[in-house]
Write a structure and sequence with these properties.
It contains nine helices and eight strands. By secondary structure, the protein is an alpha/beta fold. It has a six-stranded parallel sheet with strand order 3-2-1-6-7-8, sandwiched between helices. Strands 4-5 form a two-stranded antiparallel sheet. Helix 1 links the parallel strand 1 and strand 2 (about 70-80). The radius of gyration is 18 Å and the shape is globular. It comes from Hygrophoropsis aurantiaca. This is Nucleotidylyl transferase.
Length: about 290
């Protein structure tokens, strides 16, 4: 594909203790040399991870195969740090473990990256830079069947309410929008109640890097609703992977979600413009 790839970032990132980048399911060789390799990254709370989170990757996979010249070589869930201090946000250890269970037991190509989860709050733009560095600089990108080197394009995967927040003045910084949408690009999954076409009007300069994916089967499952069910003692089986449900029950999680920890003074102002979540329902460029 003729798309111009951005310049690679130089330097290194500060990693959490005992961190290693997870690449065991990353395809190192392109199946089709005429395709541009991409990696999908979903940033979110995943508190807890649901089937809808996983379904988003499959929808994007179908769309990419049928409508683009991309080839997906991997997909990642990137749970947010505890320092984000969002109401209902379970400890990162539990969230990462649940995401790992969901990916390993329900998918053959999804992976978890814990870099974001076990350190200070990181803006989405920086998280994407981290993936770009690990895959293209550390791992050296990918190769074609003929042995030609290719850099991998990192792309954000999120729900359509993300586009709505990006088009709201003052919610996201222009610098971060240009970095995320201009440098990387995004796949946006339609969500119930979120209009996509109107929201993209104010993002017209990046329209070539925004891929809108229609929701063919309506699904309004959210982590917020799952937590509510659990607090009320209701079953959440078949809303989440069975291994995740078992883990929640074994560890007595989400029995008292409460209002969540209070945000630090000034936290919303500093963090909201650079943060996106794939769960649904917030007005601060995040979702539950």
């Amino acid at each position: 594909m003729a798309t111009q790839m951005p310049a690679r970032r130089t330097g290194t990132f500060n990693n959490p203790p005992n961190y290693s980048f997870n690449s065991h399911r990353l395809h190192k060789t392109l199946r089709n040399s005429n395709k541009q390799p991409i990696v999908l990254v979903a940033c979110g709370s995943f508190s807890p991870v649901t089937y809808l989170h996983l379904r988003m990757f499959e929808m994007a996979k179908d769309y990419v195969r049928q409508n683009t010249d991309f080839e997906i070589i991997g997909g990642y869930l990137s749970p947010v740090s505890d320092k984000y201090k969002k109401p209902g946000l379970l400890n990162a250890h539990h969230r990462v473990h649940m995401c790992s269970l969901a990916a390993e037991q329900t998918s053959s190509w999804l992976m978890i990256d814990s870099w974001e989860a076990f350190q200070n709050y990181q803006r989405t733009a920086v998280v994407l830079d981290h993936f770009d560095y690990e895959i293209n600089t550390v791992l050296g990108g990918v190769h074609t069947q003929e042995g030609e080197h290719r850099n991998v394009r990192i792309m954000l995967l999120a729900g359509s309410d993300l586009i709505s927040t990006m088009s709201e003045p003052g919610v996201w910084s222009h610098t971060d929008l240009d970095h995320i949408l201009g440098r990387y690009g995004t796949f946006i999954i339609e969500r119930a109640g979120s209009g996509m076409d109107q929201a993209t009007d104010s993002l017209a300069r990046w329209r070539h890097n925004i891929y809108l994916i229609p929701q063919l089967i309506q699904n309004d499952v959210s982590s917020t609703k799952v937590r509510l069910f659990l607090r009320r003692g209701l079953s959440v089986r078949y809303l989440l992977p069975a291994a995740v449900v078992d883990y929640i029950e074994e560890n007595n999680l989400y029995l008292d979600d409460g209002p969540g920890p209070e945000k630090e003074k000034g936290k919303d102002k500093d963090s909201a413009p650079g943060r996106c979540d794939v769960d649904a329902g917030s007005s601060k460029s995040t979702q539950s």
